[in-house]
Amino acid sequence: QVQLVESGGGLVQAGGSLRLACAPSGRTASRNVIGWFRQCPGKEREFVAAISRWGGGTRYADSVQGRFTISRDNTKNTVYLQMNSLKPEDTAVYYCAAATLVGVTTTPQNYDYWGQGTQVTVSS
């Protein structure tokens, strides 16, 4: 079992920055691929970014490429999502998720464990 706890959400003005953190715990947590997804009311959950087990590989959605950066510090057992130049359309609940059996993937169905989510609101 892997437990995931997100933190760092909040309200920010357009153009501002936030850093989300995801702390996985449990068996082999540090060896999981970690992904960030987001979901708006009435819409499907969409991929944002993902990072490989040791941090050497990353993937981003086109909509956040160049603005968001995913990183991990396995000594602190934490994965970060640095979000810069935020836009109102980035407003969503952000979830981190752990994939235990596959490599870096953008598909929600490949992730086995999910956090509770943290709200990010970007005002115009």
Walk me through what this model shows:
With 124 residues, this protein is mostly beta strands. Helices cover 0% and strands 51% of the residues. It has strands at 2-7, 10-13, 18-26, 33-39, 46-51, 58-60, 68-73, 78-83, 92-99, 113-114, 118-123. The chain is globular and about 40 Å long. The model has no long low-confidence stretch (mean pLDDT 92).
Radius of gyration: 13 Å
> How would a textbook summarize the main sheet?
7 strands, mixed
Uncertain parts: none
Query: Oligomeric state of the chains?
Result: single chain
Would you tell me the overall average pLDDT? Answer: 92
Query: How much beta, percentage-wise?
Result: over 45%
Order of H and E elements: EEEEEEEEEEE
By secondary-structure content and strand pairing, the structural class works out as mainly beta
How many distinct beta strands?
A: 11
Q: Please work out how many helical segments DSSP would assign.
A: 0
Helix amount = under 10%
Shape: globular
Query: Separation of termini?
Result: 40 Å
